[in-house]
Amino acid sequence: MSQTVLVVFHGLFMYRFQNNTCQAGFVDGFSGWHVPGIAVYKKNGTGGQWQLTHGPYGPETLQGNTGIVVSKAVPLRVAAKYTNQQAPDWNTLAANDFRWVLDFERDLYGHQMTINEQNFYGAIRLNDGIFCAHARTGAAIRIVDPNNPSNPVHQRKLAALVRANITLNQVGDKVTLQLKQIDPITLPYQQGVDYRIAIKNYEPPGTNLNSNHLGLLTSVLALQQNDIAYQFHAADEYTDMEPGADWIYPNKRPPENCPSATLGISYPILF
Q: What share of the chain is helix, strand, coil (3-state, %, to 5)?
């Protein structure tokens, strides 16, 4: 019987697929706004409750390059989940389709972008898993050209939470979490056991929702001369609660909207 390791990204991340890995980058300059953290949960059996087993750990454990390393007998490529091959119809697109994640290259700029690595606070790399939208924003997000703010370039819901589904199939398969300043955390295949790795980078409650969050994401991009510095305005809505992660949602309150983005011209697609 297969076992699931669910990696859930809560908040503002930049995803890049490259060389059969996915890099989920934390923007630098989060002080007072977006505070990275990570925790590990475990559940026994279908009716079991999620229990915190490791962490929560703070930003110091996520600085620089960290990793979620999957070792198993039958490796699986890293891929983004598409539920059909057609251009997305946002009214009917499946809720787990990765295209709910804002794609800077396809949705906004129309050309390949490069990243200023030094502008990341840190980045987690995964070598296995299917990336999906996990929860969408409560309302549409406005993306505007600052020279024409009354005419949004995009106005739709976006993926506020992203997940990577990792499947372990047999004894010997495992996931190893490699963070700074702590010993590696190993999550081995165990029949009837599921794991959840919760990674956050969202606004604490009470932060100004009208902030230009897109500016934090574009700060890691090397924009070309004619590229527009789009602005990003979150709606005053919340995402759905994520079960079993009280640390992620203090006082049982869901986070403000902090959608993620991706660079997607060349990422692998899984239908």
A: 10, 40, 50
Amino acid identity, position 124: I
Distance from C-alpha of 46 to C-alpha of 53, rounded to nearest angstrom? 18
The rounded percent of the chain whose pLDDT value lies above 90 is: 37
Give the whole-angstrom CA distance, residue 185 versus residue 195. 12
159 - beta bridge partners? 136
Q: Where are the domains of the chain?
A: 3-270
- According to DSSP, residue 104 is labeled I
User: Can you tell me the distance from the alpha carbon of 49 to that of 45, in angstroms, rounded to the nearest whole number?
Assistant: 9
Cα separation, 25 vs 41, in Å, equals 22
From residue 198, give the alpha-carbon distance in Å to each of 42, 161, 254, 258. Answer: 11, 10, 14, 15
**Residues 88, 80: Cα–Cα separation, whole Å:** 14
Omega before 88 cis (within 30°)? no
Closest by CA position to 10, among listed 130, 120, 128, 164 = 164
Cβ pair 244, 196 in contact under 8 A: yes
| Residue pLDDT, tens place only, 111-142 | 999 888 888 888 999 999 999 998 887 778 88
Structure tokens at 147: 């020279």
Give the Cβ contact number of residue 189 at 10 Å: 20
Query: How many CB atoms neighbour CB 108 within 10 A?
Result: 19
